[in-house]
Amino acid sequence: MVVAGLLMAFVILPAIFNFSLLSTQFWQIYTRFYITGLFGTFFYVALTLPLSVVLGFLMGWARVSRIRIFRWPASLYVNIFRGLPPLILVIFASLFGTSLIPQPILDRFFAGFRRGDIAVGIAAIAIAMHSSAYQAEIFRAGFQSVPKGQVEAAQALGLRSWQGMRHVILPQTFRLSLPPLGNEFAVLIKDTSILAGIAGTELVAKSRDLLGVLSASGLPIVWIFAVWTVVAITYLVLTYSVTRGLRLLERKFHTPGLEAISL
Amino acid sequence: MIRVNDVQKHFGALHVLRGITFEVQKGEAIVIIGPSGSGKSTLLRCINLLVEPDSGQVFIDGVQVNRHGIRHEWVRQQVGMVFQSFNLFTHLTAIDNVTLGLTRVKGMTHDKAVEKARELLARVGLAAKENSYPAELSGGQQQRVAIARALAMDPKAMLFDEPTSALDPEYIREVLDVMTALAREGMTMIVVTHEMGFASNVASRILFMDAGKIVEEGSAEQIFHRPKEERTRSFVSKILR
Ligand SMILES: Nc1ncnc2c1ncn2[C@@H]1O[C@H](COP(=O)(O)OP(=O)(O)OP(=O)(O)O)[C@@H](O)[C@H]1O
Ligand SMILES: [Mg+2]
Questions:
Q1: Is B211 on the interface with A (CB under 8 A)?
Q2: Among the atoms of ligand 1, which is closest to the Cα of residue B34?
């Protein structure tokens, strides 16, 4: 797969569209855009990924709670954020986002930020929530696949219910959820590119910025192909590393009898 | 050691226990038999409060356990329980299954817990399997680990809920042998089982339950061969076949 990708990026596409990824002139100009864009993407991933895991975990937990007033809001949350395309969520977040925050709070805590940046931040949170809805379902399945009998056995030993949660349920939920979480993280990384649509500073937006410069300054127009090929390779490398990393974790924690749940 | 007095339990409209009264002396092993749905499991679970009785009293070693303000965790340390489906913790090795309660409930150090767990695994004949995960053990071995896990808490009595009925026939013997040895060492035991041989050899009394009541109580010889009640007779004739 890696070989096929390299062949595509360095030989086949360049031959068809007549560009080269090895052109120094191209990199002299693109590098600056690329690095800022890549850092932007890392920034949004670093913001959304932990947030989505925390939210997803809490919502998944709430969905299996014995307490009904925890269950139904969580299931409403999951259905709404899973049911809307992330692009729509981002549009809504950037349109209404800043007006949801009261002015005094904006003045006090976000004084140094431009309104536009705050809107992008809120849109990023919306993407995290979209992902968390899927993660909630992963965690819910993880919780539910721990047999009830084991919880009873923990009680029968005299463990308190939080100890049963901590030492019996959570370790198993964690192992069972790892593989599907890896897939979900890859989706989340890709989804941060949607922020380009509202001028978030990330890989896709910065690459598009270069293309604007391109036509104005008489640089070769075939660089369009080079730019998007580099962007594509970058996303492939990012998502592949994440799924690969999770696969390694999974192997480290492998336990006979606790094979992955598939959704 | 264990005294159950007029215990009632409903699940919604279902009247599952209809006034159960009996007593088990210290060091005594009794067997409970009865048709499916008669309330045997519910009765055992009322003793360690996995199920809360609606009314009546349960005493363990003279202490009424189903009263307000008692710590359920404390009650459950007094009586060990072994389940039909073993319920070992899947993510833990045999020895870690045994040490979990020791370190987390009894507050023992890890080293002490391991030492004690090794003794218990040896006692149920599984010294060589301490690092195996439940999925790597046969049903009979899993159930013996489960017994070791319950014994680790130094319970005053043990409850067994059909401990061999999920086992392939070739593994039943090894589990019954462990239970027999336990009874001979003087453990107070309440065993729900339809293993006639075990009941005859080990139980000082058999209780026959039907429809939430104890219908008849007596020695194995009496219940199996000279039952007084018609319901007992017809049930026993089915399982003796
Ligand atoms: N938690 C529960 N909620 C509702 N009904 C229950 C519950 N536990 C048991 N029951 C019902 O109570 C009745 C008695 O169940 P119990 O498990 O005590 O019977 P049993 O004698 O152990 O039967 P078996 O031999 O099949 O194990 C059954 O009708 C069962 O469906
Ligand atoms: Mg039962």
A1: no
A2: 21
Domains within chain A, CATH numbers bracketed: 2-252 (1.10.3720.10)
Amino acid identity for residue A103 in this structure: Q
Pocket of ligand 1 (CB under 6 A): B 11, 14, 16, 34, 36-42
CB atoms A157 and B91 under 8 Å: no
The residue contributing the CA closest to ligand 1 atom 28 is B37
Question: pTM for the whole thing?
Answer: 0.86
Where do we find the tokens 């349109």? A95
Give the minimum alpha-carbon distance from B136 to chain A in angstroms, rounded to a whole number.
7
3-state secondary structure of B131: coil
Q: What is the DSSP letter of A166?
A: I
Which of chain B's residues have a Cβ under 8 Å away from the Cβ of A254? none
CB contact under 8 A, A153 and B73: no
Is residue B149 less than 8 Å (CB to CB) from chain A? yes
Residues A227, A23 contacting (CB under 8 angstroms): no
pLDDT tens for each residue of chain B, 241 residues long: 999 999 999 999 999 999 999 999 999 999 999 999 999 999 999 999 999 999 999 999 999 999 888 999 999 999 999 999 999 999 999 999 999 999 999 999 999 999 999 999 999 999 999 999 999 999 999 999 999 999 999 999 999 999 999 999 999 999 999 999 999 999 999 999 999 999 999 999 999 999 999 999 999 999 999 999 999 999 998 887 6
* Angstrom distances, CA of residue A128 to CA of A56, A62, A136, A139: 9, 18, 12, 16
What is the number of the ligand 1 atom nearest to the C-alpha of B12?
A: 4
